[in-house]
Amino acid sequence: MGRETRGAVEMGILEWFGVGGGPDGPVPETRTDAVRRIAAGLAALPPDRARFVAAFAYLLGRVAHADHELTDAETAAMRRLVASESGLPEPDVALVVDIAAHESLIFGGTEDFRVTREFDEISTPEQKLMLVRCLFALSAADSSVVTKEDNEIRRIALALKVPHDDFVAARAAVREHLAVLKPRE
Fold first, then answer.
1. What is the Cα–Cα distance from 149 to 65, expressed in whole angstroms?
2. Per the confidence metrics, is the pTM higher than 0.90?
3. Which residues of the chain have pLDDT under 70?
4. Which residue segments constitute the domains of the chain, with CATH numbers given?
5. Other CB atoms closer than 10 Å to residue 113's CB: what's the count?
6. Is residue 67 within 8 Å of residue 146, measured between CB atoms?
């Protein structure tokens, strides 16, 4: 492989992982297709706020689907959390939650990582901690935080660089719902 071809291939791989870039440095935009599709339903919000709410809703959907089951209680919790975060009217909230749940189910995996990275870039440390608390509240909505949900929240918290003590405190708030601590039936 010639030097020019090898450079183009290496550049593409680095850009794909989000760590490379052109001669001017790293690729600046990390907006994901999933966030873009969800934000499209948020015309009532300023674009930056719509992007934040879309990433927030997607990450809720990611945790709700961690155990491969989205319960009515989890859907209701997602709607409450998105409504409180966005201030949108109920029809808009329902649309956003439906799109986010669909996106996280269909495009999970790679999009999970990319949306989490995008949320990390657009949120403050306080917003990241708020998200982790909301993720635990969501997973406890059906009275049982199963290990898969707990692990998924931990992966998100690590990617967002949420301090371990803050993660533990957020988890402790739902201690009575942790399936791992409940007696076997």
1. 8
2. no
3. 1-30, 179-185
4. 1-29 (no CATH), 33-181 (1.10.3680.10)
5. 14
6. yes
